[in-house]
Amino acid sequence: MFNHNRGLWGYSGLAEDGEPLTIMSHGIGGPSAAIVLEELCDLGLQRAIRIGSCGALSEALDLGQLICADRLIAADGTSKALIGEEPLVPDQQMTALLAAQADHYGPVVSADLFYERGSERIEGWKRSGAIAVEMEAAALLAVARLRSIHLAVLLMVSDQSAGAGARLEGVALERATERLGRAAVAALLASG
Prior knowledge:
By secondary structure, the protein is of the alpha/beta class. The protein has 6 helices and 8 strands. The protein has a single domain (49-191), classed as Nucleoside phosphorylase domain (Rossmann fold, 3-Layer(aba) Sandwich). It has helices at residues 30-42, 77-83, 92-99, 120-127, 137-147, 170-191, and strands spanning 10-14, 20-24, 47-56, 66-75, 104-111, 132-134, 150-161, 164-167. 38% of the residues are buried.
């Protein structure tokens, strides 16, 4: 462990190929995630994969499955404050590597609320093609664009819907989280 400032834990060491690897938590929401990524960029970060959880918007998604985001739909304030309404597309090379390991591939929406009240926004996201919702990736992609780094997004379905429904727990959560991390490390190693 090299960091635990602000309650955000960070670990650094060597990956299987002997190259440096850092795993850093960024807290909940775009503002916190953006701060952490900015500071990692100041330390020399050039490639990153945002891994984390998401809520399903598509009935085709099952708990524990992995989703590779091919684009982000910004419904958050942080990404819009950073770059306006510009499209948010993850790094294509790393996205292709992640997609090969994911169960699903498609657009994901980033929002500011975990417990989304009312279905109007959720239904709008579904109509726009989003298959899942999470809270940090759009902000991270905005910072990545501003800092000229490569960033991709891989998510694990932890909730059946936006902050509601059945949740992944216990051993199933541990197994899915391990699969998520291994897929991200493999993609980082392959994108070298």
